[in-house]
Amino acid sequence: MSVGGRSSASATARLSVLVAILSVPAFTGVWELVARSGFVNAVLFPPPSTVAVAILEWIRSGQFFADLMASLSRVAAGFAIGAVGGIVLGVLTGRFRLVSSLLSPLFHILRPIPPVAFVPIVILWFGLSETGKLFLVVWGVFFTVWLATHIGVQKVDRGLIRAAQMLGTPQPQMLWEIVFLGALPYITVGLRTAVSISFYTLVAAELAGAFAGIVYRIEIAQQNMQTGQVMGGLAALGLLSFVADRFFASLAERAVWWR
Amino acid sequence: MTPSLLRPDQPLRLVDTYPPSAPARQTTIRVEDLSVVFDAPSGQVIAVDRVSLAVAQGEFVSIVGPSGCGKSTLLNAMAGLERPFEGQVLMAGEAMLAPRPEIGMVFQQPHLFPWKSVRRNIAHGPRALGKPNAEALRIADNLIEMIGLTRFASAYPHTLSGGMQQRVAIARALANQPRVLLMDEPFGALDAQTRAVMQDNLLELRERINATIVFVTHDIDEAILLSDRVLIMSAGPGRILKDLQVSLPRPRSSAIVAEAAYIALKRDCLDLIRSEGRRAFEQMEIRT
Questions:
Q1: Which domain covers residue B132, as residue numbers?
Q2: The total number of structural domains that make up chain B
Q3: CATH number for the domain including B207?
Q4: I need a surface site. Which of B92, B247, B252, B256 has the fewest CB within 10 A?
């Protein structure tokens, strides 16, 4: 009985690996069949083969690379500015009560406003310039990273701070070597969350008006009824954000090097 | 000749006349009428009540008392980590208002910086005091050799046992060459075997560098074994009940627990603590 049970358990395990491998191809196949069957409008719901052709066209035209760079540079610059600002202010508000009393109430009021809601005023302020897009991404990233850092700093073991105080640690060294590193596990979680936020604010920023970018391309394709291109853009965006998330996950593991 | 802790170009300020009976010994740290008060939900609690004490250079003083008697608070106030409500702590005649590197501290938990190797942990203090990196690391290496952890110099704290971690914490505190070393139940979290080894290590270390040490513990055996003087504290509010001289010969080892003088001293301590404990317990019962 037990032997039979074990062998059937391993059979189940093998089967689930096989199913996992076949999952995406199977659904793609079903999609292809349904799209070609005539039950649905193939113009609105093109089969994956059409999407693949659209993606290849996009790459061959050279526009894909330009769009990718436009989107990526917006995300990267916005993320960098928002993250650095969030970490610096988070360390200060987490460590100094007076700074926290000054800034935390304001940040807690601004933080829950979805960054997308700022699109209209950003257009008024910055027009269709890159500054406006940067503003949206920075806004989304900053508060997430600030909050994670602020909480992380407050969770730093008080014993470590006391030990550092007893050793005569001056304030800059205390902030960098004890407080910041002590909060690093929290900060990396905040950074990873901020990656996905930066992509979703990018969507809002490019939909609000741009001249290049992956989401811009999706919008243009939609206006021309190029549904295959729209879906290709969505796939590219999904892949990009997935890769960025994986990258940050592995970075987060390595950043906390002492564990 | 025992090997010197640091190289000759770095005179160690901890070194002092020895044995402790040597004449004209200077006071290092002095506590004058110190009270520490905490705010509690039920009102103010007096943790330390008008305590005065003085520690001479090269002296090893233990503070013994039941848990919650305020002995750790007293030590924290001596470290500058706790504000006095009344009275003051004087270090070489100057009032202590904040932690100072002349006073080293070893806590019950090692509190090593988890992201720094053993070497970098020990070098932290000298670097904080502005020493060049190379010199800080040299000081660290000498201390690592002294605590016998050369093999673990580049290891991270979480890979070390509790006893090894506490040895690193002691070395880290010594790296700034403090004039006084405060130790807050440093072996309290260790198992009995490790604890005994650590006590022997500390005795040996002390013979070598003749540090001035204030040592808080609730273990009377530990206090008598290590100290020149044992201060017995009472609970609620924390006061010093008795100041006992331990005139057992040095160097000591854990073998002294069988000696008559030791047994007599321990009996005195126990009697005091027992009657004090009963008084505190009865007070508590009346209160509740």
A1: 108-171
A2: 2
A3: 3.40.50.300
A4: B247
For domain A49-255, the CATH superfamily is MetI-like (1.10.3720.10)
Kindly state whether residues B214 and B124 are assigned to the same domain. Answer: no
Q: How far is A164 from chain B (nearest CA, A)?
A: 8
pLDDT, residue B10, reads 43
Closest-approach residue (CA) in chain B for A171: B128
Which of B97, B113, B154 has the highest number of chain A CBs within 10 A, making it the mutation to test binding with A? B113
Q: What number of other Cβ atoms are within 10 A of residue A90's Cβ?
A: 30
> H or E segment at B37?
strand B27-40
Do the chains contact at A177 and B99, CB–CB below 8 Å? Answer: no
Task: Report how far residue B151's alpha carbon sits from residue B170's, in angstroms, rounded to the nearest whole number.
Answer: 17
| Whole-angstrom distance, CA of residue B227 vs CA of residue B221 | 10
Query: Is B71 among the domain residues?
Result: yes
Looking at the fold, whether B133 and B38 belong to one and the same domain comes out as no
Residue of A nearest to B155 (CA): A258
At A181-199, the pLDDT tens digits run 999 999 999 999 999 999 9
Concatenated DSSP letters for A191-225? HHHHHHHHHHHHHHHHHT--SSSHHHHHHHHHHTT
